[in-house]
């Protein structure tokens, strides 16, 4: 009887030992990978800190959607811009989403995801004005910051007069006072002034689509193809389902 009991106990323990690793592996396989994502939360409405000290913005919502579609989780870390790229190279975090323009120079030291937004120059006009292009403002003054792409684009349009400003906020002040017909600037800057600032939210609107190309991408450490593939999978799904358009409507329109 003791021998029988010993055999039963031994077989039970053996069965547990044999099945336990399988159960652990299954649990690990089902668990989402969590990656740490750096952002310089000082660039509204793309990334910023709200009154509750939470990091919010277009980029934050977009990456959360990418993670959901890609099957992983994200934790955001607020990192100063001047050290953000050194941090990814040193492995202090797994990725960066912080309105980073994709350039050939940056590609030499870091890898980029597929582009996720074109943040090029766009037109802002007073609400009630029915135009969608710069050319429709022929014979009128349009503001831009001196020396920027926006100023150069205005100069290209025959019949539209450029009014330059040392700081883009002054252009929006002039438009609010009726002294100019429109403002041209980067899409995120336009969204910040036209949508986020209380004094302008009911006065201005963004019209048309960006008419220059400045694509943003998510950064990963050079050579981290596995993570890059996960992120690109999520980006493709977010765009295919139109989730990006909903996020854009919330923050940029």
Low-confidence parts, pLDDT < 50 over ≥5 residues?
1-30
Which structural class fits the helix and strand makeup?
Answer: alpha/beta
Q: How many beta-strand runs?
A: 15
Summarize model confidence as the mean pLDDT. 88
- The CATH class of the largest domain, by name, is Alpha Beta
For the record, give the distance between the C-alpha atoms at the N and C termini, rounded to a whole number: 79 Å
Instruction: Name the overall outline.
Output: elongated
Looking at the structure, the CATH topology of the largest domain is D-Maltodextrin-Binding Protein, domain 2
CATH architecture of the largest domain: 3-Layer(aba) Sandwich
Main sheet: which strands, in order across? Answer: 5-1-6-15-7
Percentage beta strand = 15-25%
């Amino acid at each position: 009887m003791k021998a029988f009991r010993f055999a039963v106990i031994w077989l039970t323990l053996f069965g547990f030992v044999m099945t336990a690793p399988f159960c652990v592996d299954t649990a690990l396989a089902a668990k989402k990978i969590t990656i740490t994502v750096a952002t310089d939360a000082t660039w509204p409405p793309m990334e910023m800190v709200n009154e509750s000290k939470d990091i919010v913005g277009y980029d934050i919502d977009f990456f959360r959607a990418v993670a959901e579609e890609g099957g992983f989780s994200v934790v955001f870390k607020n990192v100063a811009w001047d050290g953000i790229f050194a941090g990814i190279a040193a492995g202090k975090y797994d990725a960066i989403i912080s309105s980073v323009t994709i350039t050939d120079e940056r590609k030499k030291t870091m890898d980029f995801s597929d582009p996720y937004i074109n943040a090029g120059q766009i037109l802002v006009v007073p609400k009630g004005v029915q135009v969608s292009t710069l050319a429709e403002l022929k014979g009128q003054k349009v503001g831009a910051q001196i020396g920027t792409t926006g100023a150069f684009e205005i100069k290209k349009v025959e019949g539209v007069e450029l009014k330059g400003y040392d700081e883009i906020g002054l252009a929006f002040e002039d438009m609010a006072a009726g002294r100019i017909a429109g403002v041209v600037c980067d899409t995120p800057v336009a969204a910040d002034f036209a949508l986020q600032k209380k004094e302008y939210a009911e006065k201005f609107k963004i019209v048309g689509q960006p008419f220059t190309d400045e694509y943003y991408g998510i950064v990963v450490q050079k050579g981290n193809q596995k993570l890059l593939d996960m992120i690109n999978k999520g980006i493709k799904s977010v765009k295919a389902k139109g989730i990006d358009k909903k996020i854009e409507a919330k923050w940029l329109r």
